[in-house]
Specification:
The complex is a heterodimer of chains A (632) and B (138). Chain A is an alpha+beta fold. Chain A has helices at residues 4-13, 15-18, 83-93, 107-145, 169-182, 184-199, 225-243, 266-286, 294-314, 336-361, 369-391, 421-443, 452-461, 468-472, 486-496, 508-519, 522-529, 558-583, 586-602, 616-623, and strands at residues 25-26, 41-46, 57-62, 65-72, 75-79, 98-103, 151-155, 253-254, 319-320, 328-329, 395-396, 407-411, 503-505. Mean pLDDT of chain A is 90; it is low at 1-17 and 628-632. Classes of the chains: A alpha+beta (632), B mainly alpha (138).
Chain lengths: 632, 138
């Protein structure tokens, strides 16, 4: 937090700056707005609400992607979700209005803006990968310095047991198939060579020239110890899993429908058989590959082949558990709203899983990797929710498609003897200092001078140097005046850039209210929906501070509503002092948040609109889980 | 409550699931995002990402390390839930399209692809297909 006082002042003293200015057209199409056309350019303003980015947010949509800068651990990171993901998060779950400004620019100019953003995203991704690699290297060296045997967390290694009691027939058959392709002796030699290479000591990384890093230039390649270690060890583990016929760890197999599940249909058997053959082909190809990431690809191919063969042998639809235990995200004692959301998600996932199997049974699904991954994820995510709800376990999840590469620590080579462990640690620490310093220099967040609005404005203009007026119709001057506030940047863009009139997309609750007003009496809707006790358009969220009255739709009554909300928040916070031992302070924190967001309401400013743990749009997204074509 | 949260610039990776509203729903449903959108779905997005990466590599790689290029492809594939980029014809076609977008003539594109991806006949054929399709479309 660089300027907390400034942030507070900004929030409370300048509320008017956060509100949209000027007329906007309201538009939705079934509540789910159409993304910009391919190649079209739109500036997006995400309106204020309680929670993250309570002062608003900004994004730049190009086609169906939205580029936006997020503050992560004190640095601005460029993200690029799809339009529908962006809409679901901000408009639905966070319940914020979105304003869209279609900017008129030539196709080649839009392409230049997009290319600049892509370059920046790729370069930043590379910078962060170097940081992660150095952190892993440091852990490897530090553990040796403490006297531990060297270990490395190998991706995919947690899929397999390290000891083989009696190999399964399908593991033996797979080894024979591969040996038949490359020769039995070759497979043994491959395993021997992989083990020898993986046992060679590894030198610490050379000095990373992070001082030369720029936002728009790929960093000079530096051989990193972490890459070498990971690739050698992945390969060793993969070839050993194949040659030694290692079985899958039992806990890595999921049968989500339980023991009562029906067996496999003929079509499902055919699907699994075709899948097993696909993985067999991949395995035979991978053992002859020399690319750096071949080991982890081989690990997952062997694991999926084992799962398919076991499913066929046991007449049960086994799939892999893809989650890395390190990806665990604790949801401590979820409140009522969150428990309801977890239950709805579990129902959605179970239904989608059933539909997916029905489509397989109907011969509708190709046994390719996208389909394989989807059925794994449906099963695994469902199990996580069931266990969280039933057993109070922590949830494991990942916000993106997951390849089953759970890590396990395996024996690793030591640091090369020419360098003492102390010296190795000093070198990697120096590298980390340089890299973190470079990242702070390039991406360090600043509330006023380097935030999601200023950087988006800069990225929009960067490709044009002196020709910005010709390309966009005017200049945003994102580093001047109030343009660091997303609402003000948007208004400035609407005034200065060549653009169509802005369009406002209502928030999720606004859409619900509009729909209710179409069917019911306006006054009845207003009375019922004006407070959190009787509202049907709002179900509470564990993340929202406590409040009783919605003040965003009734400006004249805000001070009254604010006073009620303030009193309610104070009451909950005080009560939270007594419930602390039972709820870990959650009630008190939510009460305090309620107080914090009630104060502006006393002065006619409504920041808080309520948010959602779950909406039916989430269910629709899960219901849309469908086999996707392989990218061939 | 961070300064970021007060101004804007939503935080992402550091948002713990227990703190951020709707983040569990978002996280649990995002891998199933519909493929029936205007961009043509996951496969088109994957190819688009490989193409962008190829263009950026041409522009900015400087002293080039072919293994680094392969590592980058592996990372893009993983982001799309794919474990084996080399098994997908679409990868090579997208590299070819990226080389075309980067302004390389067909012969030069083949040469660059050989140094980045090896001289396999299948790779060459697919890269050329991708290059020609992109050239025709532009």
């Amino acid at each position: 937090m660089r300027r907390p006082i400034g942030a507070l002042a900004l929030l409370w003293a300048l509320p008017a700056l956060l509100a949209p200015a000027g007329p906007v057209r309201a538009a939705t199409r079934g509540g789910d707005p159409v993304p910009p056309a391919p190649g079209a350019l739109e500036l997006i303003h995400v309106e204020i609400n309680e929670g993250g980015s309570s002062g608003g947010h900004a994004g730049l949509a190009i086609g169906d992607r939205v580029y936006h800068f997020q503050a992560v651990d004190g640095r601005l990171v460029l993200a690029r979700p799809t339009w529908s993901s962006f809409f679901l998060r901000y408009s639905s779950l966070e319940n914020r209005g979105l304003r869209r400004l279609p900017i008129e620019a030539a196709a080649e100019d839009v392409a230049r803006i997009r290319a600049g953003l892509e370059r920046r995203r790729l370069v930043q991704t590379r910078h962060l990968e170097v940081l992660a690699a150095l952190e892993d290297e440091r852990a490897w060296i530090a553990s040796q310095l403490r006297g531990a045997a060297p270990e490395w967390p190998v991706r995919g290694a947690a899929l397999f047991a390290s000891r083989v009691r009696a190999p399964t027939p399908w593991a033996a058959a797979l080894r024979d198939v591969v040996a038949g392709r490359i020769g039995a002796e070759s497979l043994e030699r491959l395993a021997r060579d992989a083990a020898v290479r993986a046992s060679r000591p590894v030198a610490p990384s050379a000095a990373v020239d992070a001082a030369a890093w720029r936002r728009d230039r790929w960093p000079k390649a530096t051989p990193l110890a972490a890459a070498l270690l990971a690739e050698r060890l992945e390969w060793r583990e993969a070839v050993a899993a194949l040659a030694d016929m290692r079985p899958l760890r039992p806990e890595r197999l999921l049968d989500p429908l339980g023991a009562s599940a029906a067996g496999l249909s003929a079509a499902e058997r055919a699907w699994l058989e075709a899948g097993a053959r696909l993985w067999e082909e991949r395995i035979a190809s991978l053992v002859r590959s020399d690319r750096p990431d071949r080991g982890r690809s081989l690990l997952v191919a062997i694991a999926r082949h084992r799962a398919a063969r076991r499913a066929l042998a046991e007449d049960r639809f086994w799939t892999l558990d893809p989650f890395d235990d390190a990806a665990t995200a604790a949801v401590a004692r979820p409140g009522a709203a969150r428990r309801r959301a977890l239950a709805r998600l579990a129902t959605d996932l179970a239904a989608a899983h059933t539909r997916f199997r029905a489509r397989i049974a109907a011969g509708d699904v190709a046994p390719d990797e996208p389909a394989w991954r989807q059925i794994e994820e449906l099963a695994a995510r469902h199990r996580e929710l069931v266990r969280a709800l039933g057993e109070g376990r922590a949830l494991r999840t990942a916000p993106a498609p997951v390849v089953p590469w759970p890590r396990a620590a395996v024996a690793a080579p030591p640091v090369q003897g020419a360098v003492s462990l102390g010296e190795a640690l000093r070198r990697v620490d120096a590298n980390l200092r340089r890299v973190r310093g470079a990242l702070d220099r390039l991406d360090g967040y600043d509330l006023f001078t380097f935030n999601c609005a200023t950087e988006l404005g800069a990225a929009l203009e960067a490709p044009f140097a002196d020709g910005v007026e010709e390309a966009l119709g005017g200049s945003l001057d994102p580093d001047r005046g109030w343009a660091f506030i997303p609402a003000r940047l948007f208004d400035r863009a609407a005034r200065r850039l060549r653009s169509a009139p802005p369009v406002r997309l209502p928030s999720y609750r606004e859409r619900r209210l509009a729909s209710m007003r179409e069917r019911e009496n306006d006054l009845a809707v207003w009375l019922r929906e004006s407070n959190t006790l009787s509202a049907r358009s709002y179900h509470g969220s564990d993340s929202d501070g406590y409040f009783l009255v919605f003040t965003d739709g009734t400006p004249a009554l805000r001070p009254v509503g604010g006073l009620i909300n303030l009193s309610y928040g104070v009451g909950q916070a005080v009560a939270g002092l007594f419930t602390w031992p039972f709820d870990g302070g959650r009630r008190m924190v939510r009460g305090a948040r309620g107080v914090f967001y009630s104060v502006p309401e006393l002065f006619f400013v409504a920041l808080r609109k309520g948010s959602y743990e779950y909406t039916e749009e989430v269910g629709a997204r899960i219901a849309g889980a469908s086999p996707k074509a392989n990218p061939d | 409550m961070s300064s970021a949260s007060l101004n804007g610039c939503a935080s992402s990776a550091s948002d713990s699931l227990s703190e951020s509203s709707g983040s569990i729903s978002d996280s649990f449903s995002s891998p199933f995002e519909s493929s029936s959108d205007s961009s043509g779905g996951d496969d088109a997005r994957y190819r688009g990402d490989v193409e962008d990466y190829t263009v950026a590599s041409l522009e900015t790689l400087g002293p080039f390390d072919a293994k680094d290029f392969a590592r980058g492809l592996a990372n893009i594939a993983e982001a799309h839930g794919l474990s084996d980029w080399a098994a997908l014809d679409g990868t090579y076609r997208a590299v070819g399209a990226g080389l075309a977008r980067g302004g390389l003539a067909e012969g030069a594109a083949v040469g660059v692809a050989r140094s980045w991806l090896g001289g396999d006949a299948r790779v060459r054929r697919l890269v050329v297909e991708g290059w020609r399709a992109a050239t025709r479309a532009s």
